[in-house]
Amino acid sequence: MSSGSPNALHREGDDTGAREKMVALRGALLRLHKALLEMERRDYEREHGVVNVGELFRLVVDDPQFSWLHNISEFVVRIDEALTGKAPIGPSDSDTAFDLARKMFTPTESGDAFQKQYFAAIQRDPAVVMEHAELARLFSQTLPKERKE
């Protein structure tokens, strides 16, 4: 491992595979979050005009249009805390993170508020579709053996 890689944070007691899964999930969620943020920014700017980076930051924190994206930010923060915490990362940790992510990122018109917003975003933006496909691919690659078909 090179010292610059995310896996360089490997600690004694970690299951390398579990840590790598968490790092992969984190990366996929960050890319999806960026695509969703860009989609919301374009929608906002169509109605209100162009915003600079500082204004965008304020909007992401305070504007109701962007508030549904906080769920993704919070999820990534929890992964970061696990990756940098003192406790080792084990298979049950990565399995739990993936199970929660699978549930959260199931786009459906009849789900919770986030799932409905996510469903609508997939209908509106090809970049979101692409990132969702990558996340779905990651999910299918990381199913526990007894759940793979």
Description of the structure:
With 149 residues, the chain is mainly α. The protein has one domain. The protein is built from 7 helices and no strands. Helix 1 (16-48) packs antiparallel against helix 4 and helix 6 (113-124) crosses helix 7 (126-141).
Give a short overview:
With 149 residues, the chain is mainly alpha-helical.
Please tell me how large the radius of gyration is: 17 Å
Give the tally of β-strands.
0
Please report which band the strand proportion falls in: under 5%, 5-15%, 15-25%, 25-35%, 35-45% or over 45%: under 5%
The chain-level mean pLDDT equals: 89
Query: What percentage of residues falls in helices of 4 or more residues?
Result: 55-70%
- Determine the number of helices (DSSP H or I, runs of at least 4 residues): 7
- What overall form do the CA principal axes indicate? globular
The major sheet is characterized as: none
Q: H/E element string? A: HHHHHHH
For the record, give the distance between the C-alpha atoms at the N and C termini, rounded to a whole number.
32 Å
Low-confidence runs (pLDDT<50, min 5 residues)?
1-8
Structural category is mainly alpha
Structural domain count: 1
Task: Looking at this protein, list some descriptive labels.
disordered N terminus, 149 residues, 70% helix
Mind sketching the topology for me?
Elements (H helix, E strand, L loop, with lengths): L15 H33 L4 H10 L1 H4 L2 H15 L6 H14 L8 H12 L1 H16 L8
